[in-house]
Amino acid sequence: MLSPARSAPQAPHSPVDHRTARAVLVLALVALVAAVAFPLAPVQQARAEYAWSAAEGPAAIPLMPYEPVALTVTTGCDAARTGGVLLSTVPLRPDPGAEPLDGLRLTAAEGRLSVVSAGRDLGPVALPAGPCAIVLTSDPDRTEVLVDGAPVLTRDGDLRPAVAGAFSDTDRGVALALTADTRFETTISPLKAGIAAVGVLALLGMLGALARLDGPSRVRLLPRRWWLPRPVDAAVAALLGAWWVVGAITVDDGYISGIVRSRGSNGFVGNVYRWLNAPEAPFSWFYDLTHLWSLVSASTLWMRLPATLLGLVTWLLLSRSLLPRLGPAAQRPWLAALAFGTWWVPYQLGLRPEPWVALGLLGVLLAVERAVATRRLLPVALGLVLAGATTALTPGGLVAFTPFLAAAVPLARLVRARPAAHRWPLALAGLAAPASAVLLMVSDQSLAAVLEATRVRQLIGGGVEWYQEYERYALLLQPDSFQGAIGRRAAVLVTVLAAVGVLVALRRGRTGLATGPASRLAVSVLLALAVLTATPTKWTQHFGDLGGVGAAVLVAGAVAWRSAPLRGRPRAFTAALAAAVAVGSLVLAGYNAWPYASGWFAPTFSTLPPQVAGTAVATLLVVAGLAVVAVLAVRVIGARAADRAEPDVPERVPGPVPVLAVVLVAVLALQVLSLARTAVEERDSYTLASDAVSTLRGAPCGLQERLSVETDPAAGLLRARTAPPVRGERTVDVGGARVRGVAVAGSSTTAWFALDPAQRDGALPVVVTTSGVLRPGDVLRMEFGDAAGGVVDVRPLTTAAGDVRELAPAGAESVRLVIAGATTGQAALVTLPRAPRLTRMTDLLPAGSTAVLDWPVAFLFPCLAPEPVRDGAAGLATWRVAPPAEDDSGAITYSPRFGGPFAAPRLLVTERSMATYLDGDPLRDAARVVRWDPAEPLVRSVPVVTSETVPGWARTGRARVPGLDPVG
Questions:
Q1: Which CATH number fits the domain that encloses residue 169?
Q2: What region holds the Arabinosyltransferas concanavalin like domain (predicted)?
Q3: pTM of the full predicted structure?
């Protein structure tokens, strides 16, 4: 692709160059001004106004954000004299399982009106004799009560109440009007679009002028016949294709799926799970692309295709452009394929931005290398544009600027070689190029909205400080977590060793690599690792940003430290082998672990580090490797002590490169083949592969296709063979249903219950549900009996509250419970055994049904539509699809202190949780279906929505976070 770093000096610049330089100056200045003006430009903002009167009855107005911009309550003395609660903006009797919100409550009693707002008692208002008009207003500046137009109670400061609805003890004489906070619900205005158009045209003109300033290029952009496929390309494409089907999901696929799929109904890319649904801007432009992609299909197969295509493009740039730049010695296609797979498999498949960043960083590095090789300025500007766009993807996208730091010296020489009259134009061009990313960062948001969203995120938290970067590496070395999985360790640890090895080898002599490009590549990777400290979270997933350049470093490291030249340098060989053994052992100590559904059917060998005959392979490698290293060290020390020349390393001793190559091959094969094996063995249950097959067969509803729901736990109680079935019968609350059961107290044995035919066949488990906690000494066990009444198996039940599922052993015909416990204190309750009566989830929630999709599972339910958050309010859903009972991570969506968008609707409903049963694995709690039943009949207030144009700096108060933002 590129010529050597040194090329023929340029010809003296002609007078036309100065005119072109002035054009660069003017166009760069216009592009820069457009980038500065763009966030300040006006936007079209929705204005949603809600109105309610007591005659309508209780109403649902679950605002999001929780407080309105302004609120007005009108009533009169006649209504107040009836007493009771005139108005409450939160339910009078909320579900005790929901986290409370501090609303407004007007209560009349004994000739006084008490006012409580945002958790503050504002004091009483004395009611005059006779008729009167009472008006309460609340906005970010003050809350005020007026009687017949005269202020009688004024409190300065922000005391706006949270609003979930409107509730009153009276049916007349009270009205509420409010304007919802829609500061984030904005679209681009014509003026803002015009500024963007001017900025883009000026940027393109600037790039054209730079190309003219550079003069014609005689260097090919791509090598000859680059488009011809090779066997290694087919292998990489096959790997990407197989991984696309069987590969694991990432921990955030559900999170991102919920965000991008809500884009259409919400009108902007907001965080529908926390942070008050604040926009993801300034790091969200690829979410808009993903949303457009999801309009075709939200199936897992379709949604994971972009990452696979990005992988193909990355491979082509790596193999056709970057590796040739490193020199002929780096032309090792199969080694490159191994390096690429090492990085791509554990990090890049899914909806996260890492594959985008990896491609962007690789493209920037290639642009910098072309600039250095051809002494042209246009590649520098293009690289800066790409670096800015990559940064606009995610905070980790800052790594895209590291190639400029690594090549700072040759780039500075390139600029200094230009005439002095060109310096200012080039400086402005260097600013305007990355500043163009602003057009992506705030394409449909105002500057004020982005600043408020940033404030809310920082207030609620969720990240850690830069100086806690060590946590990322602690997670990488955590043994039993997917954060430190074997594949992630392999990519990062071996690449770091390779980068250091390249720099050391280049200083010591000839390596077969092009010194400048190889050193800049290695420095870019190490700088990128340092830049990752700027990311607000410290997950190991972010290492995927290095996926393209990391693979190139692996190839360069193998070339630089190939074993043959080292054998004549025993000390260097010994040190390199020791480092390889140490790194390889740390890699092999990791688990082959994957998050969520991808880890459901992990083979036994994946629940432990790789082992041979019960001994960890990591231990075998470190013992054997260090023994070899010790022998080599003794040889070196002995030779030096005797003043003899150090003997060459024997050919039979493996070098560091073969050792690490074997480790990488084994790790890659373990990851891919284990999930391929799971796909085959569990094809009748749910895997990403079975999901893909079902999608191709016309059933694209994902996990929903393989789940059945127990809608009525009481309906499946087993028939008792003897009477009475149980002494001291109690009822147990099972997801809102009352089911017959017994207390775990005293000593008792239930009757034998006949197993259902499906239970005798092993298709359905025997299920009991416990409520409360077993006390020390309590005994609860399930006994299975044969046809003659003999006990064939005993299962102790020691679980906490929830469903207990047990498959009946072969030959069992019946089941009973045996109980022994103290007769004092709070006893746990347990239902009688049942065979769940199931309804297919696709029948209960047909395709297109709306539900709140909790983020851990949202990606797996593509046929369900996310409940909208629009017009300043969250939807009052009928259904919620939740993760397994032991996973409470989805609770942030309903928690005010996390800015949960559905905290207000949760106050209005009672939850009825329904267990699900997975085809092929009925013991697994794969997800829960939760029905939201309104606690009382509610009308849904419909807003009057208009549009207004607001400047980019306009703001009205702030979006308050309960418990974190001060009130008043």
A1: 2.60.120.610
A2: 45-182
A3: 0.93
